[in-house]
Amino acid sequence: MTTIDPTLLLSNKQTTKSTGNSSLGKDEFLKILMTQLQNQDPLNPMEDKEFIAQMAQFSSLEQMTNMATMLEKYLYFQLQTGGDNLLQYSEMIGKHIEWKKSDDEVGEGIVKSIKRNDTGIILELDNGDEISSSYVTKVSESD
């Protein structure tokens, strides 16, 4: 009777686990799909339903990747412009605004200019007041 070499037992082997990127990108997904197609049994090929489902998954993955890329670009643009776009608020120049900081502090005036500081967009009024754009409650044409 032959004996089994105890060094070959799995319990004696040291197992190492590699921790890499756990998310699959579209390139990895396509490689897996192509490998699966190349190595399928020619007598029992993948059914059409399975193939269509996998192609739909690939298409969804590609669209999500594209969307994530566009969101990154959008966020980068927003950070570059300070979050609030100065040009957007420039349309308020010459407009009559009403603002409210608290129940006790309300006011109105005509926007003379717009500037940006560390806290956001500041509206400079014709009466000398400077109001944060977040306090504006109404914008209308000036008389």
From TrEMBL:
Keywords: Bacterial flagellum biogenesis, Cell projection, Cilium, Flagellum. It comes from Metabacillus niabensis. It comes from the Bacteria. Pfam families: FlgD (PF03963). InterPro entries: FlgD (IPR005648). This is Flagellar basal-body rod modification protein FlgD. Belongs to the FlgD family.
